[in-house]
Amino acid sequence: MALADNTGCAKPSEDFPFPEIIELNVGGQVYITRHPTLVSVPGSLLWEMFTQKNVRSLARDSKGRFFVDRDGFLFRYILDYMRDQQLVLPDHFPERSRLQREAEYFMLPELVKMLAPKFSKQNSLGDDPCQSDPEELSPSADATRNLTSASATLPSTVAGGPGGAIAAGTGAAGTDIRRAGFITIGYRGTYTLGRDSQTDAKFRRVARIMVCGKTSLAKEVFGDTLNESRDPDRPPERYTSRYYLKFTFLEQAFDKLADAGFHMVACNSTGTCAFAHDQTDDRIWTSYTEYVFYRE
């Protein structure tokens, strides 16, 4: 009786140390792919890793998966490119410049060229490359530029008339127009209250500061301190409630909002008793607090 062909599940040998199916742990994200996919681009970092004979030199996690200490969310686009050498990104992709850095790390020059910013005739090569990313351009960008050029031609006396708000927002050079909008930041916390006395309260540090609002406003205010990994494909003019800050100091968030012209208009907090210790009078409370900021 003929035996079934189990080459796809064959164990590694000395001549071929890698299995057909390979599990990768990239920054905590697990990927499963075929060995030919990882070596499809000669000269790339993955090609160098998975064509060597000394498998023991490659880092592994606790479950034996090959470990790569890079951005696990962006690696899916790297792996897609390795499959057919084509680049397909979602609309309004907000991580283009970061993905370009990942392509440079994995030594994929053709992918780096695909991700390179394209400059128009109006833009100089000295401009920040991130300004050409799709996420930095809103549907109302043309209208904003037209409004800027129009306000620059208005006389200074208009500031006291109906258009005064626009003139004040543009400044002397007529180049700094800031859009109005809301940004809400919130955080969850716990505290221990003993014997029903506030003097015995023990508070834990803030674990994470959440950011809710329009994507473009959140990026403008918090910049590189904004973690977008939980909602990476959100268009700039859409709202999200999944961003959070890379720091855990509320005062630092307040300072950034104040510097951007926002002021607090509302806040609220709730607290519930989660459980009480059996042997003590201490009660563990959980709380959630939100602060709403607005810029005119």
Automatic annotation (TrEMBL):
Subcellular compartments: Postsynaptic cell membrane; Presynaptic cell membrane
Chief location bin: membrane
Chain coiled-coil ranges: none
CC terms in the record's Gene Ontology section: postsynaptic membrane; presynaptic membrane; receptor complex
Listed InterPro entries: BTB/POZ_dom, H1_KCTD8_12_16, SKP1/BTB/POZ_sf, T1-type_BTB
Keywords: Cell membrane, Cell projection, Membrane, Phosphoprotein, Postsynaptic cell membrane, Synapse
CDD domains: BTB_POZ_KCTD8-like (cd18367), H1_KCTD12b (cd22216)
Segments forming domain BTB: 20-123
Segments of this protein annotated with the region Disordered: 122-143
Keyword Glycosyltransferase annotated: no
Pfam family, one: BTB_2
GO BP term, pick one: regulation of G protein-coupled receptor signaling pathway
Keyword Glycosyltransferase annotated: no
Domain of life: Eukaryota
Job of this protein: Auxiliary subunit of GABA-B receptors that determine the pharmacology and kinetics of the receptor response. Increases agonist potency and markedly alter the G-protein signaling of the receptors by accelerating onset and promoting desensitization.
Name of the protein described by the UniProt record: BTB/POZ domain-containing protein KCTD12-like
Species per Swiss-Prot/TrEMBL record: Patagioenas fasciata monilis
